[in-house]
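Predict the holo structure. Ligand: heme C.
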Amino acid sequence: MNRIAKLITAGTLASILVVILSAGPAHAEVDKKTVRTWKAKCSSCHGEDGKGATEQGKKMGVRDMTAGDFWTGLTDAKMKDAITNGIKQTKNGKVQEMEPYKDKLKAEDIDALVAYVKTLKK
Ligand code: HEC
């Protein structure tokens, strides 16, 4: 093999390695864990699909996270605050209550949930 061919081979191997590393299992794992957390801790009100069409969700007037107007003016910071510190408010005559998750979830889990919730947007 001449030098140029060797260089090309090394370069190709290096890029393959980069692709494997960046698409590696670590990422998929985080997502699965986040989905599990969502299903276990959040879907009872928000629904697995985020539409809030659950018994609890209807009772409290939980909004449809897949709908455009849910996202109007909503920032990552606001979502993080809601998940961290909870919600207690009355809206349209309905008592809306979400417990604070600061003692139950780590900050990075809450960040992952914020990112996950954003994937529900249609
Ligand atoms: C006991 C029911 C309940 C559970 C469980 C629940 N929520 Fe909520 N959530 C609500 C209510 C009620 C609201 C306020 C109404 C709305 O915005 O739809 C809300 C609002 C939100 C909002 C919007 C906050 C904002 O500022 O507008 C986000 C994001 C959210 N929840 C995420 C989560 C995540 C993530 C979990 C799980 C860790 C979770 N919720 C669990 C009831 C719940």
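The chain has a mean pLDDT of 88. Residues 41-42, 44-46, 56, 60, 62-63, 74, 78-79, 82-83, 87, 96-98, 101, 113, 117 surround heme C (CB under 6 Å).
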